[in-house]
Amino acid sequence: MDAGKKRRGRPIKPPVEGERIPLSLRVTAKLKRDLEQASAGRSLSQEAERRLEMSFEWERAFGDAQSWLRKSKSEVNQVERGNTEAALRRLGWQRVMSPGGYIWVPPGAPTSAASELLNPGDEASSLQQIIERAVSAALAKAGMGEKQR
To answer: How far apart are CA 36 and CA 56, in angstroms?
Structure first.
């Protein structure tokens, strides 16, 4: 539309924050049925708005779906190629020594108690010695005295 021409009809009001404004769109019959089934007491407009908002929240949290899928596939490919250790480290997992060898502990899991019990330099690093210490402590706590060898 030319800047010099005057628009016909009623002037468009600027949108008011929080107020709903109309939006028209065409959808397939299947998409309309899907919206109707998913609406759960909401109007079709409310359900469509909710789903549009969720798509923008997803993009803010994870970026667009295609780049997220590429990143996920890359991680899976690295694991399949044998780079499991590098992939776990990137995801925040920690490697902790256990009596049977190293184990991987997920992010946020306490590792201090496990690494104290499973310290390979400790004389009680074998599983049998750890169990014996636990049984001795339990017997002493129960008032049954020191375990006899």
So the answer is: 21
